[in-house]
Amino acid sequence: MSYEIMNIGPVPTEENAAQVGRPDYEEQSRRECRVFKNMLERLHPIPSDCPATLVVKSFPHEFGSYREVCVRYDADDAAATTYAFALEGDTPVN
C-alpha cells in the first residue's frame, strides 16, 4: 500500500480560519479542524471498504505549526483515490 495525504483545509474554503501566531490559535484551530472534519464525515462518508480516513495534521510554519484536515488514502486503491479527489473537489465553501 502506498498512502498519500491530501490537504483539504482547516475550514470550508470561503470561511476565515484561525491565524497562526495569534494567542488563541491553538484552541481555535483545534476546534475549527474538529468541527470541519465532523462536517466532512457527515457530508462525504467514507465507504466501509475504502482505505481512506480523515485526519487532522500539523505542519511547520515560520510562525509556528498550523493544522489542516487531510484525507489519508491508499493511492494504489482506485476507490480510495476517487474518494480523496471527489472530497477535494466538493469541499464545502461555508
Explain how this protein is built:
The chain has helices spanning 25-43, 78-89, and strands at 3-9, 52-61, 64-74. The model has no long low-confidence stretch (mean pLDDT 95). The chain is globular, with a radius of gyration of 14 Å. By secondary structure, it is of the alpha+beta class.
Characteristic terms for this protein:
alpha+beta; 94 residues; 3-stranded antiparallel sheet
End-to-end C-alpha gap: 34 Å
Largest sheet: 3 strands, antiparallel
Report mean pLDDT, rounded to a whole number. 95
Q: What's the β-strand tally?
A: 3
What is the helix content?
A: 25-40%
pLDDT under 50 segments (min length 5)?
Answer: none
Q: Determine the oligomeric state from the structure.
A: single chain
For the largest sheet, list the strands in their spatial order: 1-3-2
Shape estimate = globular
Based on secondary structure, the structural category is alpha+beta
- Number of helical elements: 2
CA-based gyration radius: 14 Å
Name the helix and strand elements from N-terminus to C-terminus, one letter apiece: EHEEH
The proportion of strand residues reads 25-35%
